[in-house]
């Protein structure tokens, strides 16, 4: 009787180890190979595989980063994830263990502890190789950012002043231009796109651009933010078209890890106001400076995704609003900040926007115990930039919970 129970326990342990070994095997697989087996019809160029989205189609909207295994669809459909198992789950619409069975064939009957350990070691080695490749790529991108920042040194700032005035930030409202802004009169707007089945760098536009330094926690420049403008366009925005589709007028170059655009940074501050874009954040500074006082920094968070950091996936919920604390790439507030105010633009879909901001606030509160987080909406359906009239954040306080 006892021996049967022990046998059963032994069999159960072996079965569990066999499953774990199969998962390790799948995780260690190259994303390239798995994408090829899935016949996704992707083309590779400089570290990216691109092509039609396995969920929603198109031509080149689906992208896999071969360095870290992350993938996403530009249309924002559910085709996003990380690693070979996620890719199989998304493409074949399978649950986790079914995807493992699909990739692995029949699961092994049993494996020994040594075999399992050796598989884990193999996977760790593959992981290490990928991380090293990603780090090399990151260093190259930071070099590119420094190149742009250096080229923009010493350029006259009048065109940037004129552009900001078109966005309501006149010299009267903003007497001093932030030191983290520079100007380039003829900057190329370059993106990778698939042309005749090949991924290529395409110059879609050239023109004047406002260049902003993006600084990591130690103050070093790791990235630049570029805003192309056209002083004759509506709100100063240029029309950048690619195959008839209008493109955003902003691009970054470099590594954004934990970084921000430090627009206004007093010597001492314990409150940080952060909007997504430069214009929104400066508008908040103009409107709230008097109400909030001098010991307040105004930094732009670059993108909602960066302010949020990685969000935890919860079955049945597209946006959980809960931070994945294993991710260390999103924005990190300085450890001395006691109050963090996120400005919520009203011009985007409110529910995902709100979930992302809540995720970022929760992340900050976990990182800095005692920090107070707030999300201050800029008014329904209105970009804060359109609301230059002062409003007190205290009146619109919203508890992120
Ligand atoms: Zn898609």
Automatic annotation (TrEMBL):
Coiled coil: none annotated. Its EC number is 3.6.1.-. InterPro entries: DNA_primase_Znf_CHC2 (IPR036977), DUF7146 (IPR055570). Pfam families: DUF7146. GO terms for molecular function: DNA binding; hydrolase activity; zinc ion binding. It comes from the Bacteria. GO terms for biological process: DNA replication. Residues 140-237 form the DUF7146 domain. It is an enzyme of class 3 (hydrolase). Keywords: Hydrolase. This is DNA primase. It comes from Mameliella alba.
């Amino acid at each position: 009787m006892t021996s049967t129970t022990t046998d059963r326990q032994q069999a159960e342990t072996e079965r569990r180890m066999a499953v774990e070994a199969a998962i390790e095997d799948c995780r260690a697989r190259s994303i390239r190979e798995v994408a090829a087996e899935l016949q996704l019809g992707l083309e590779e160029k400089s570290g990216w595989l691109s092509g039609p989205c396995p969920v929603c189609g198109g031509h080149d909207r689906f992208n896999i980063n071969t360095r870290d295994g992350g993938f996403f669809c530009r249309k924002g459909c559910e085709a996003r994830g990380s690693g070979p198992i996620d890719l199989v789950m998304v493409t074949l619409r399978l649950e986790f263990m079914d995807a493992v069975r699909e990739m692995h064939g029949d699961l092994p009957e049993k494996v020994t502890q040594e075999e399992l350990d050796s598989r884990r070691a193999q996977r760790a080695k593959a992981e290490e190789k990928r991380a090293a490749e990603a780090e090399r790529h990151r260093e190259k991108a930071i070099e590119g950012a420094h190149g742009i920042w250096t080229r923009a040194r010493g350029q006259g700032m009048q065109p940037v002043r004129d552009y900001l005035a078109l966005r309501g930030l006149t010299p009267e409202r903003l007497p001093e231009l932030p030191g983290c802004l520079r100007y380039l009169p003829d900057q190329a707007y370059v993106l990778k796109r698939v042309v005749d089945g090949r991924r290529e760098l395409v110059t879609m536009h050239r023109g004047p651009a406002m260049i902003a330094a993006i600084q990591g926690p130690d103050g070093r420049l790791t990235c630049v933010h570029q805003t192309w403008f056209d002083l004759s366009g509506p709100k100063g925005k240029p029309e950048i078209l690619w195959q008839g589709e209008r493109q955003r007028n902003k691009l970054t170059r470099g590594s954004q890890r934990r970084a921000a655009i430090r627009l206004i940074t007093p010597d001492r501050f314990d409150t940080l106001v952060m909007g997504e874009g430069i214009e929104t954040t400066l508008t908040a500074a103009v409107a709230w400076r008097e109400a909030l006082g001098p010991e307040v920094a105004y930094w732009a968070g670059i993108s909602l995704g960066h302010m949020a950091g990685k969000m935890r996936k919860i079955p049945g919920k597209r946006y959980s609003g809960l931070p994945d604390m294993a991710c260390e790439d999103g924005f990190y507030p300085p450890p001395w900040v006691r109050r963090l105010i996120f400005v919520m633009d009203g011009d985007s879909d409110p529910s995902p926007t709100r979930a992302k901001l809540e995720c970022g606030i929760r992340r900050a509160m976990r990182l800095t115990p005692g920090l107070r987080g707030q999300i201050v909406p800029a008014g329904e359906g209105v970009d804060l930039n359109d609301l230059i009239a002062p409003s007190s954040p205290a009146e619109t306080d919203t508890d992120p919970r």
